[in-house]
Specification:
Layout: H1 2-27, E1 33-34, E2 37-38, H2 54-57, H3 67-80, H4 87-90, H5 114-117, H6 122-131, H7 146-158
Antiparallel strand pairs: 1-2
Helix pairs in contact: 3-7
Bound molecules: heme C.
Heme C binds at residues 47, 49, 81, 84, 86, 88-90, 100, 104, 106, 108-109, 120, 124-125, 128-129, 133, 136-139, 141, 152, 156.
């Protein structure tokens, strides 16, 4: 009889502990929910990024959007850029939902959103890639050559084109 009571108490405590855990997980899902939709790329995307100095805003991408340049930008975006590849934040498909996305406020830019990205001058993108966006997790990529930054910009811009 005593054994049955002890077993009963054990089962009871296991059930209550798992229920409590279940409740904790439900209460702290650590999910980012915006506009009621989880993991939907936002477009248009709210943007409070500092505007680049005038001399940058006038800059135009000097490289042609050749396959070679876009491919070089693609390689940097997905693998080679340091301190880390753009992909981990901006996502494999450029929609801003990379694997680190849930850790980041504000969210990484969604390059597939033409409404937000197309009006930005080349020089604005250049300045942010080189210097980072202060007060956000967007790092400065100081060790990239100018050509590499322009190659990245050709690659980033292809995400908002319909036929990419
Ligand atoms: C650790 C995460 C992280 C990595 C890695 C990262 N970004 Fe970002 N990026 C962000 C965040 C967050 C923002 C949003 C910043 C803001 O709202 O001002 C952003 C914004 C941008 C913007 C928007 C600039 C603007 O004026 O709106 C560009 C362009 C950009 N990133 C390019 C890149 C490129 C190219 C790489 C790789 C070479 C890269 N990012 C790597 C997090 C990251």
């Amino acid at each position: 009889m005593k054994r049955i009571i002890i077993l009963g108490l054990f089962i009871f405590s296991v059930i209550t502990t798992s229920l409590a855990w279940g409740w904790t997980l439900v209460a702290h899902p650590e999910k980012k929910v915006e506009g009621g939709l989880e993991f939907e790329p936002l477009c248009p995307q709210a943007r409070k990024t500092v505007t680049a100095p005038e001399k940058f805003l006038k800059m135009k991408n000097p490289l042609p959007p050749s396959h070679e340049n876009i491919f070089a930008g693609q390689t940097l975006f997905h693998f080679d850029s340091q301190p880390g590849p753009c992909r981990v934040c901006h996502g494999i498909s450029g929609n801003g939902l990379g694997i680190l996305f849930r850790e980041l406020t504000p969210s990484p830019r969604n390059f597939t959103c033409s409404q937000t990205i197309d009006p930005l001058p080349d020089g604005q993108l250049f300045w942010v890639i080189r210097n980072g966006s202060s007060g956000t997790e967007m790092p400065a990529f100081k060790n990239l050559g100018d050509d590499q930054v322009w190659q990245l910009i050709h690659y980033i811009r292809h995400f908002s084109k319909e036929d990419h």
